[in-house]
Amino acid sequence: QVQLQESGGGSVQSGGSLKLSCAASGDTRCMAWFRQAPGKEREGVATIDTDGSTNYADSVKGRSTISRDNAKNVLYLQMNSLKPEDTAMYYCAAGERVGYCPLSPYNYWGQGTQVTVSS
């Protein structure tokens, strides 16, 4: 069982930046950020493997960077040039790789951290 705890959310103006963190109680091969806006389905934002390979949703590509500190079991998401449409609850997730991290099942989830971007 891996427990995940997100932090770093908040309210910013359009164009601003935020860095989300997720502390994990254990180590898993794949880690990811997901988000869910009110009335919308949850969507994947970015994934990262222990070897550092990453994948991003088109909606955040070029504006966000996912990273992890394997020694400390901490996952990060640096978000720049934030837009109002980035407003959502952001969730950290972890799981073992089945083929490819973006397609792997994520069995462990955090409680989420709210990101609100105002225009």
End-to-end CA span? 40 Å
Structural class: mainly beta
Can you count the helices? 0
Q: Detail the poorly predicted runs.
A: none
Fraction in helix: under 10%
Radius of gyration over C-alpha positions, nearest whole angstrom: 13 Å
Tell me, what's the shape? globular
Structural topology:
Layout: E1 4-7, E2 10-13, E3 18-24, E4 30-36, E5 43-49, E6 54-56, E7 64-69, E8 74-79, E9 88-95, E10 108-109, E11 113-118
Parallel strand pairs: 2-11
Antiparallel strand pairs: 1-3, 3-8, 4-5, 4-9, 5-6, 7-8, 9-10, 9-11
Tell me what the structure shows.
With 119 residues, the chain is mostly beta strands. The chain has strands at residues 4-7, 10-13, 18-24, 30-36, 43-49, 54-56, 64-69, 74-79, 88-95, 108-109, 113-118. Strand 5 and strand 6 form a beta hairpin. The radius of gyration is 13 Å and the shape is globular.
Spell out the key features of this protein.
about 120 residues; mainly beta; 7-stranded mixed sheet; 4-stranded antiparallel sheet; 11 strands; about 0% helix; about 50% strand; globular
Give a nutshell description of this structure:
The protein is mainly beta and 119 residues long. Helices cover 0% and strands 50% of the residues.
